[in-house]
């Protein structure tokens, strides 16, 4: 978690980056799996409801 700037008022807000490591997995399948997981993950739900975030999938 890091602090970021709110584009609306210029004050601070939280920002997060989630890195999902799935070594050796097919990149398309890995991205699909992560996308489906975001629908049930409580942390992902929290991020979608107000905390800026980035989700990256690493298969290398």
Q: Could you characterize what this model shows?
A:
Helix content is 32%, strand content 35%. The chain is α+β, with helices and mostly antiparallel strands. It has a three-stranded mixed β-sheet with strand order 1-2-3. The radius of gyration is 14 Å and the shape is elongated.
**Gap from first CA to last CA:** 24 Å
Please state the CA-atom Rg, rounded to the nearest Å: 14 Å
Number of helices: 2
Gross geometry? elongated
Helix content range:
25-40%
List SSEs in N-to-C order: EEHHE
Strand order of the biggest β-sheet: 1-2-3
What composes the largest sheet? Answer: 3 strands, mixed
The secondary structure category is alpha+beta
Concise overview:
This protein is an alpha+beta fold and 60 residues long.
Task: Draw up the topology in text.
Blueprint: E1 2-5, E2 12-21, H1 27-38, H2 42-48, E3 52-58
Parallel strand pairs: 2-3
Antiparallel strand pairs: 1-2
């Amino acid at each position: 978690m890091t602090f970021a700037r709110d584009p609306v008022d210029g004050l601070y807000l939280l920002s997060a980056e989630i890195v999902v490591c799935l070594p050796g997995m097919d990149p398309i399948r890995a991205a699909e799996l992560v996308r489906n997981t975001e629908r049930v993950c409580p942390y992902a739900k929290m991020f979608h409801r107000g905390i800026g975030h980035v989700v990256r999938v690493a298969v290398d």
